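---------- Forwarded message ----------

FYI, see the FAD-binding oxidoreductase record below. Original note from H. follows.
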Amino acid sequence: MTDHATFLATLTGIVGDSYLIGPGGDFEPYVVDWRGRYHGSALAVVKPGSTQEVSAVVKACVAAGIAIVPQGGNTGMCGAATPLGDRDMIVLRLDRLNKIRSVSRLGDSIAVDAGCILADIQKAADDIDRLFPLSLGAEGSCQIGGNLSTNAGGTAVLRYGTTRELCLGLEVVMPNGEILDGMTALRKDSTSFDTKQLFIGAEGTLGIITGAVLKLFPKPRARAVAFVKLNSIDAVLDLLAQARTDLGDRLGAFEVMSRGQIDVIAENLPLVTIPFELDTPWYVLIELVDTLLSVDLNEAMETMLGNAYERELIADALVASSETQAATFWKIRHSVSEGSKAAGYVISHDSAVPLSQQATFVKQVEKRIAEYRPDARIVMHGHIGDGNIHVLAIIPGFKQDQKNEIAETILAINTIVDEETAALGGSISAEHGIGIANRERLGRVANPVELKLLRSVKAMLDPNDIMNPGKVLPAQ
């Protein structure tokens, strides 16, 4: 049996008294997920200050048989960073690994610690007249290690790709404590396997990301932003096709929201301004960007929207006349999680289906959830330009102590969404990850051969199941 006192003393010797929260300390911020769904427990919260200290902590945990839950900003949606289960475990926080290691304007790359806040990376890029394009609602508190571990998407995937596509190299502490140094900024390297891909999207189950080299891009010099009203999801998709035809690579974002989603924001977040009447069922936020100042993107936007209006694809549109108004539009989009959370118990989904099947998916899911649970408030938002739409069923009046009814409702609604997603050739997780929330859902829809391969990789790299046990892989 592990001597906890001796183990904690060993950790203290590695990181120092100030960076270990032990028995009797305030664990609450570290053992409860952002949405308050998962409440865990831990022997300690450990905050190493370097990759070498992370390595030493991992080796101490291996020797003592203690599991590790890596945690960044704790802003995840699926409970991946919460210490759950009946094993002894620690939370390993990466807050102190927060340095920008180097920035290259010529190489369009930035090397960072995994604990860097996403917004700080964006600013470091901006300081050298470059762009790091990953952008999401939690960017002021989420950490890049967590973004990489979940292969975060955000609002710029349409133009720049997911976090996986923004990563050039990684530094990882392996489950035995060894340090895998892959901090390369090379754009071309065909020397065998691309090992970094094992850890991107693995949610800390195969190792702990401690550093990353990321791609930077030329900063857009011009942009145009518009909010568009539409009468059907089919019209939304037709508008996307026309926007791609008319605007090409200048199409930076194409974000969709149902009227119900914006209603929820208006009702619960009075500081968020809705500068138009909500009188159609669908709304799209479009952003155009270009690196040339000489390009008149407002004119290009207005021409495209005018053509769409003549074709009766859109009911109305409002083009931002200033950066302030553009920020107001984006504030609506970035408020969907906070507004929905305040509206009731949220059963959310992160589905991606082929664009050709998106309208069918939306209609079928809404119809089936409404039939099962007439009192559910069904709202939707997402990055429809890349096929990712979030379906939310908000259940009024649910209390946390109604565990059986909540569990039954979650299972039924998840099954509806998963069946429709799988039938249309989609994925149940486009950008939020699997964690604990979607683990059994993955088991229902994943290819058995792929699951076998994933388990084999986990067993090979982490034979003692030290790294984030009970997450991602469904129980056998």
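H. also flagged this: The CA atoms of residues 253 and 451 lie 33 Å apart.
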